[in-house]
Amino acid sequence: MSKRTVSFASITTSAFGDTSGMTNNTYPFVLQGGSGTQRINVLEIMLGGQSSSTSQPQIIILSRDSTVAVTLGSTSTVDSAAMAATAALAAAPITGNAFSTAPQRLAGNGGHLLVFSFNAYGGAARWLAKDWEEIDLVGNTANLGELSLSAFTGTTSGAIGGHAVYEPF
C-alpha cells in the first residue's frame, strides 16, 4: 500500500479527561479503519506550537478510543496520499476532528499509547517509529479500530499544528 498523511495547519486545543466526549475541531485528529478488517500502521507524529503566549503546556496523548467517532462533519484536518501515483483504496480510512458522535479516549491501561509534552509557545514534539515498532489499529470499532490524538487534563489551551504519517493495508 501507500503511505498517507493526516495534517492540521492550526487548532486551538481543549483538554479532555479519559472517557469524555471531545469537542469538534479542538483536538488534532481521529484515525479509524475504513472497514471492519482494515489494518493501519502509524509511522510518525509531529506536533509544533504556534501560540504567542509564553506558558501554554500541551499534554497530547495518542490513545485508543472506547467510543468511536461516527459521521464525519466539517473538519479542519487534511488527509492526503504521500505519493502522487497512489491508487484509491476500496475502503478509505476515516480521518478528521469533527464528528456527530464524538470520540472518547480509552482510560489509562491499554488506552494511552504515546504522550507528547511541550509548550505551545514554539515547542515541538516528534515520534518516529522504528521498523517493526509501528502503532497499529485493526478495523473500525472500539477499542482496537480507532486512534485519537487529543489534549489531556492539565493542558492549557494553545494553538498547535502537525501531522501524522500512516499506512493502510
Topology (elements, then pairings):
Elements (H helix, E strand, L loop, with lengths): L3 E9 L2 E2 L12 E4 L6 E11 L7 E11 L2 E3 L5 E4 L12 E3 L2 E3 L2 E2 L6 E8 L4 E5 L6 E4 L7 E7 L6 E10 L1
Parallel strand pairs: 2-14
Antiparallel strand pairs: 1-7, 1-15, 3-8, 3-14, 4-12, 4-13, 4-15, 5-10, 5-11, 5-14, 6-9
Per DSSP, what share of the residues sits in E-state strands of 2 or more residues?
over 45%
Separation, N- and C-terminal Cα atoms: 6 Å
Q: Which radius of gyration do the C-alpha atoms yield? A: 15 Å
What share of residues is helical? under 10%
The H-and-E topology, N to C, reads as EEEEEEEEEEEEEEE
Largest sheet: 7 strands, mixed
- Which regions are unreliable across 5 or more consecutive residues at pLDDT < 50? none
Q: What is the count of distinct domains? A: 1
**Count of alpha and pi helical runs:** 0
Query: How confident overall, as mean pLDDT?
Result: 94
Shape descriptor: globular
Structural class call reads mainly beta
Number of strands: 15
Molecular structure report:
0% of the residues lie in helices and 51% in strands. The protein is mostly beta strands and 169 residues long. It is globular, with a radius of gyration of 15 Å. The model has no long low-confidence stretch (mean pLDDT 94).
